[in-house]
Amino acid sequence: IPFDVVKVKGRWASDAFLVYLRRHAQILAPYMQAQPVIHKAFLHYTLPPIRH
Questions:
Q1: What's the rounded Cα separation, in Å, for the pair 51 and 37?
Q2: Residue of 26, 28, 30, 8 lying closest to 17 (CA atoms)
Q3: Is the pTM value of this prediction over 0.70?
Q4: Which of 9, 14, 27, 32 can pair with 39 through a Cys bridge, CB separation 3.0 to 4.6 Å?
Q5: Residue 10 clears pLDDT 80, i.e. is over it
Q6: Nearest CA to 17 among 33, 1, 34?
Q7: What pLDDT is attached to residue 6?
Q8: 42-to-14, 29, 51, 52 alpha-carbon distances in Å
Q9: Residue range 14-34: average pLDDT?
């Protein structure tokens, strides 16, 4: 499920749900790592951007 859908379904008014997901990354990690495509998308949306 794309994060935009989670945001709408969860009625999140902001991107605060991303902070929520970051806090629960250790719990989610084993489940996410079992599906590499989903894991990559999760990291893309939850990790802060790299700044040079």
A1: 24
A2: 8
A3: no
A4: 32
A5: yes
A6: 1
A7: 80
A8: 17, 10, 19, 22
A9: 79
